[in-house]
Amino acid sequence: xxxxxxxxxxxxxxxxxxxxxxxxxxxxxxxxxxxxxxxxxxxxxxxxxxxxxxxxxxxxxxxxxxxxxxxxxxxxxxxxxxxxxxxxxxxxxxxxxxxxxxxxxxxxxxxxxxxxxxxxxxxxxxxxxxxxxxxxxxxxxxxxxxxxxxxxxxxxxxxxxxxxxxxxxxxxxxxxxxxxxxxxxxxxxxxxxxxxxxxxxxxxxxxxxxxxxxxxxxxxxxxxxxxxxxxxxxxxxxxxxxxxxxxxxxxxxxxxxxxxxxxxxxxxxxxxxxxxxxxxxxxxxxxxxxxxxxxxxxxxxxxxxxxxxxxxxxxxxxxxxxxxxxxxxxxxxxxxxxxxxxxxxxxxxxxxxxxxxxxxxxxxxxxxxxxxxxxxxxxxxxxxxx
Length: 386
Ligand SMILES: Cc1ncc(COP(=O)(O)O)c(C=O)c1O
Description:
seven-stranded mixed beta sheet; 2 domains; alpha/beta; three-stranded antiparallel beta sheet; binds pyridoxal-5'-phosphate; 386 residues; 14 helices; Aspartate Aminotransferase, domain 2
């Protein structure tokens, strides 16, 4: 049981009104309309609020209109290469390969670096697709405690060198990976380090280059992956090699791109248009940080155990899946849409559920108040001290 759950467990039991089970739909009753008229949506990962950006949309439409049928393999290769090179420069990487999604990137990279039977050390909260890729490659998966480098060291001492796979910023709880220490462990133990930057590419670093580059770890992290459907608003994935020597591995890892369809011209054009916007419009990152800090501080002041930090992912451990649903539905009734998360195989099951709020740069000051009002209203019903 987490400390947040210890704080919330009893009040949630009160909120159930003796029904003792999950509630399937939004609560009915006088507070249904919520404190504002427009729901605040915190379920998307459009962190920089680029999802409806006119220039990006126009570029994607232009890419479709200009395509005149299926592009020739040569044209598709050239377009993909140009974009991959621009992304490599953005990331400070030796080379970048593109594929259809972050999921494809993670499964492909694990297939490329994990030898059958070899140890793979995964943080317990590492993305499910890293776990899937490690299993598909036939690796001997070993899980280490979340962000616990001593536990990782002990497991490597027992199992020998292999692959370490982590997320730079964890989508479940918004925690940040201790990357410099992790790079030390990888070097000391002769392990290959794979870091998923899906939730920090675009949002972290002065120009959105992600945490690895912001911490100057480009050549100490062997391979980076990212899904681009978060801060970058287009469905695609990338794999970046930190050192030239890993480019060959990357070529092998790029099988989903080589043996699958190339990215379509509209996605290539949309991504090419998004990259300078992500790099140059630093105010989006500043706004994202500001609203994230305000909501987090407000929730802490209300007594919710959301933890410290300035990450755009704010998460509340609820104890059980039923309680996560219950909180989500009661907040939805107050016009605040959040996500309820549950343990997912093949990761080893951590008990309990979570409520996740994904902040974005498009939130107004009124939205922030609306969110905090929603939680404050719930606080009254939970009998939490205000
Ligand atoms: C950390 C992480 N990695 C990878 C993925 C998969 O990315 P995609 O949705 O592009 O397949 C996700 C998806 O949400 C994610 O959160």
